[in-house]
Amino acid sequence: MSGLRAALDERRFVVTAEVAPPRDADPEAIGRKAAGLRGWVDAANVTDNQGANVRMSSLAGSVLLRQAGIDPVMQLTCRDRNRIALQSDLVGAAAVGIRNVLLLTGDHPTLGDHPDAKPVFDLDGVQLVWTARTLRDDGTLLSGRPLATRPSWLIGTVENPFAPPAALRARRLAKKVAAGAEFVQTQYVFDVDAFARWVGMLRDGGVTERCAVIAGVGPIRSRRMLSFLTGSVPGVHVPEGLRRRLAGVPERRVEEEGMRVCVETIQALAAIDGVRGVHLMVFGHEDEVPDIVRRAGVRPFAELEGRR
Amino acid sequence: MGAEQAMGVEQGMGVERVLPFRPRIPAALAYALHALLARNRFYRRLAASVERRPVLYRAFTAGERVAKERLFGCRMCGQCALPATGYACPMTCPKQLRNGPCGGVRPDGSCEVDRTRRCVWVVAWTRAEGAARGADLDLLQRPVDNRQWTRSSWINYWQGRDEGLSVAHGDADPRPRLVERA
């Protein structure tokens, strides 16, 4: 398990994936998902009650993923915790050996399975990144109290290059990088040209030198998934051209066409100066990751590593 | 005032539903008003004197609340960010984001929580850019001091307590640490 930091340091093209913790206390669930990914990804995100639905905590999930041999990226959101709990979880993560954290604001509770919950949002995503850097680099809590043993995780964030206001999105990431973000994983990229323009703005602002851009990608498997992505998931933008392309094939071939689009997208993204890797979103189809990585040809040694 | 408006009257820690509020006055007018109320020696003394008298302080704060609630949907966080957001109140964002929009803004610029309302930060960006103040949104906004809810932000501002609310990227003191208030 060399992990995300090593891959970035060695300037390899990074592949990350996502492991959603189970909705119950099954200790084996994470390991089952990890089995298909081992050797094919540099790290995998463990989501924090994604979509504001209750699941096993990302801290517990990250520990289990680490035991299963994959470098976890522990996601932590501002939705459910105030600054005391956030700092406590960050410190705890460092103590149990979690080497990467991904800090975000989080979906609003009204979108999840407990819409009656109290939204916390004591800090916002930028302030949480800032707080984490303070814990690590200054060795102090927000209160100013010193930490005798400092954490050493890599700090990540998220950005959606396609959400309005478009002109602000590169500057917003620049702000997160100023606060301490060292890598960013993006929302689904379907519009490669628009994404390339956003990365261009980041390059011009010197942001790509300080922050590794990892583009979010994933296959569209069916027309149903397409309409779900465009209608129900906040912040996903599917361009008209892609919609027409998927509409132009019979339903039984949509899955294969969607996979082809995904592979082409990864190859196009790998050619953009400043893009350091891809984040694969396959939602429960972890077994597809090796196939995607192999077909995209972005990790020539992946199969070898897989056998190790 | 309609029911929607009255919601903001409920004071406290923001337990009630928070929904984006569209400012009722143009940005240009808000910037001009700010110039009138800008910190100076007179206002500093006035603020100190009002703060020493609890009854007067309550009356002053109630007046501030009424004015800012009508104009900006103010929720009385006591540490006003309006001058740096094109006078669109970030505390009316359902996630109370102080540092810019979340990733869930819909393609038409509406809020992910309530599609009938425009994202506070889309409004903020449009208003600030229109007044050549877009760079205000690049400031790093420090975490809110939750002890200041229901306090007068004008009195805090006039006495210089808001100076540390935000910092520019390259500033000498880049720490997010809570602003210490006198």
Automatic annotation (TrEMBL), chain A:
One Gene Ontology term of the biological-process aspect is: tetrahydrofolate interconversion
Q: GO CC terms on record?
A: cytosol
Q: Which residues cross the membrane?
A: none
UniProt key word Nucleus: no
Q: Name one GO molecular function term.
A: methylenetetrahydrofolate reductase (NADH) activity
Which cofactors go with this protein? FAD
Its keywords, alphabetically, are: FAD, Flavoprotein, Oxidoreductase
SUPFAM superfamilies in the cross-refs: FAD-linked oxidoreductase
- In which pathway is this protein known to take part? One-carbon metabolism; tetrahydrofolate interconversion
Identify the InterPro entries for this entry: FAD-linked_oxidoreductase-like, Mehydrof_redctse-like
User: Which reaction is catalysed here?
Assistant: (6S)-5-methyl-5,6,7,8-tetrahydrofolate + NAD(+) = (6R)-5,10-methylene-5,6,7,8-tetrahydrofolate + NADH + H(+)
Spell out the CDD domains in the cross-references. Answer: MTHFR (cd00537)
Q: Among its keywords, does the record have Oxidoreductase?
A: yes
In which family does this protein belong, per the annotation? Belongs to the methylenetetrahydrofolate reductase family.
Tell me which PANTHER family the record gives: METHYLENETETRAHYDROFOLATE REDUCTASE, METHYLENETETRAHYDROFOLATE REDUCTASE (NADPH)
Which protein is depicted? Methylenetetrahydrofolate reductase
What species does this protein belong to? Answer: Phytohabitans suffuscus
Organism classification: Bacteria, Bacillati, Actinomycetota, Actinomycetes, Micromonosporales
From TrEMBL, chain B:
Q: Known InterPro entries for this protein?
A: DUF5981
**Positions of the Methylene-tetrahydrofolate reductase C-terminal-like domain:** 58-145
**Tree of life domain:** Bacteria
Name the UniProt record assigns to this protein: Methylene-tetrahydrofolate reductase C-terminal-like domain-containing protein
**Organism of provenance:** Phytohabitans suffuscus
